[in-house]
Amino acid sequence: MIKKLILAIFILLLGAGVAFFVFKSEPRLNKNFETQSLFFKNHPFRLGLDLSGGSHLVYNADTSVVSAGEVDDSMEALRDIVERRVNLFGVSEPVVQVQHGSLVSGRGEQLIVDLPGITDVKQAIEMIGQTPLLEFKIEASENAKQKPQKVTVGKDGKIDLGAIDLGQKFVPTELTGRYLQKATLEFDINTREPRVSLQFNEEGTALFAKITKENIGKMVAIYLDGAPISTPVVREEIPNGQAVISGSFTPAEAKQLVGRLNSGALPVPITLLSTQTIGATLGDSAVNAGVKAAIIGFILVALFLILWYRLPGLVAAVSLCIFISIILALFKLMPVTLTAAGIAGFIISIGIAVDANVLIFERIKEELRSGRTIKDATSFGFSRAWMSIRDSNISNFITAIILFWFGTSLIKGFALTLGMGVIVSLFSAITVTRIFLSTLGFMGEGKMARFLFSSGITRT
Amino acid sequence: MFIIKHKKIFIGLSIALVALSLVSLFVFGLDVGIDFKGGALTEVAYKNARPSQEVLNPSLEALNLGNVSLQPTGGLGYIVKTRDLSDSEHTLLLNALSGGQKDVLTETSFNSIGPSVGRELTRKAILAIILISFAIICFIAFAFRKVSKPVSSWKYGIIAIISLLHDVIIPVGIFTVLSHYYGAELNTLFVVAVLTILGLSVSDTIVIFDRIRENIRGYTANSQMNFSQIVGLSLEQSFVRSISTSLTVILVLLALFFFGPLSTKYFALMLTAGMFFGTYSSIFLASPLLVLVEEWQRKK
């Protein structure tokens, strides 16, 4: 008996400790949050974009320009570059991830960018999209041996092609901005015109050498974001991996281009597929509503348990508190990104968590009716209810797993919180409740005890 | 047990509800949201006063965005539905809504989904539905793998699936009515709700069927109880528990519906309906059907 009591107190203390952690690490609850140790500060709830406000962008990456074997590498490079861009801009905790094409998600590689706190979507798109795409193209056919054409870049950023149609004449090569090592701003010694000098990396140098070797006397067009900015004629093979772009830049334009090139040229072109922006106020009210719903839901369930199942109900309500503390602590520690759907999953799991308890208590009641003592009825109740508990949880768990496997981020949030709820509730509703109930043996077998252990509107 | 005695009334009621839901589904149809078909949803709130739709319409038409629908929201806001918008079109739309910066507004949310993303999500949703249905049927097959008399196992399985369909079709029917009168749209959460109902409601039916089979083993050997009496007894033993377990979930769902975030309101309502009819069907549909099947067998 003493042993059981100690175990029960230990579980209670543990639960209280977990709850204390949840409280301490939450700036909304803890007024002295700023003075807390780093451990607490590092574990706030992580809120999804729909709750914190921000932008969610989905880009399609056109990987047809790279060979099949290099798709993964290119996408990783793309991710790194976009992430660097976003970081430069000072977004807190941006998430940039690659979604590979598959049978399930359909063909095509996608880049998903989450920007918490950025609600000006125009600004967000610009800061990603401005990264230049640099391409080198060669003449398509033998016949055109024209003089190099100067193309002017206007002040508004538009490129004046004159009367020539360049698009038809050039075909892309493998050489793109992904092979760029660095770009520098130079001034022509004679004309004092600003120009941009490019240094390729090892692979790029080899490619550039090959291109220049095969195209001596022909034009090589340098394309920036799909438009030609310079079309020099190759005079000789260039083995050292250096190229110069000498469009008609103003010094400021050239400097900007250098900056953009150095922050990373995109290895593959991307197009924006979808945008989602949520204002911070909308997110805030969703959080408040979610918290309110959770608290009210908990109170309703606890009231039902206590009124209907009396003493065991009270015990179940206590284990429900422990369940909630554990789940919230897990949300913080894993961490789980909470969305409105995720909160809904959590709230539903509060309802499901007591399922097992209800099954057990109904069994206990039956065993009591058949004339067993409270002690026996309790232990029989637990063992006989197990099959039903297992069955009713399996189907929920199957659903949660499949939803998690297939879902978009919205569905994943829901599936994860629901699935975690199902697992943790098995522990809280069975183990914790059992330990607590077993300490209540001192109540004896009197009339009062039997009343407290029965349920509903019956008196025995 | 009165449920078994009046089984035809309860089965009839279920059939009527399902029929009504199907009629409403075909008459009203489902309003597919931008999640699946692509498009843009812009939500704005005006600082002072909301200009009337008549005032805004000419400038919106001038944008050439095709069909633009304005839906008032809250006291000072609009939800604007259009096809998916590029960055510049989005800016133009905001400009038009503010009457050329005349009426101060803030954009509370903007969501533009390209048609290809919508197609992708549709494919994912269909796959998830197929997979979950398959997994649940496997689960049912597993739960009823043991042979039992007088009704064979696979009939339990079929009845479980029938009541599962019942549990899904009625909430969908309710949703079509909501969709027609309140503009609820078929979105990702709708699909999640349907799938969650599948998971939640099947367990209830299985638990009651388990009880019936347990009682069959215990009673047929040594008593005069016939099949319908055993089913009635099993129902008596398990309906309180069945209602209690659903009630706790329904309580939290109602809290979510009345106090929870706006975005999960219809979701909570659908799940509440699913939960309610899931419990209803396991008590008032599945078990009576079982008795009905057994009676037919004997007549043959």
Helix/strand-derived class of chain B? alpha+beta
Let me know the average pLDDT of chain A. Answer: 80
Please give the count of helices of chain B: 10
Structural class of chain A: alpha+beta
Can you characterise this structure?
The complex is a heterodimer of chains A (460) and B (300). By secondary structure, chain A is of the alpha+beta class. Chain A has three domains: 220 residues, Up-down Bundle (Multidrug efflux transporter AcrB transmembrane fold), CATH 1.20.1640; 83 residues, Alpha-Beta Plaits (2-Layer Sandwich); 129 residues, Gyrase A, domain 2 (2-Layer Sandwich), CATH 3.30.1360. Helices cover 51% and strands 17% of the residues of chain A. Chain A has 13 helices and 15 strands. Chain A has a four-stranded antiparallel β-sheet with strand order 3-4-2-14. Chain A is elongated. Chain B has two domains: 217 residues, Multidrug efflux transporter AcrB transmembrane fold, CATH 1.20.1640.10; 75 residues, Alpha-Beta Plaits (2-Layer Sandwich). Helices cover 70% and strands 9% of the residues of chain B. In chain B, strands 2-3-1-4 form a four-stranded antiparallel β-sheet. In chain B, a hairpin with a 3-residue loop joins strand 2 and strand 3. In chain B, helix 7 runs antiparallel to helix 8, helix 8 packs parallel to helix 10 and helix 9 packs antiparallel against helix 10. The longest helix of chain B is centred in the C-terminal third of the chain and has 35 residues. The mean pLDDT of chain B is 86. Strand 14 of chain A pairs antiparallel with strand 4 of chain B, so a sheet runs across the interface.
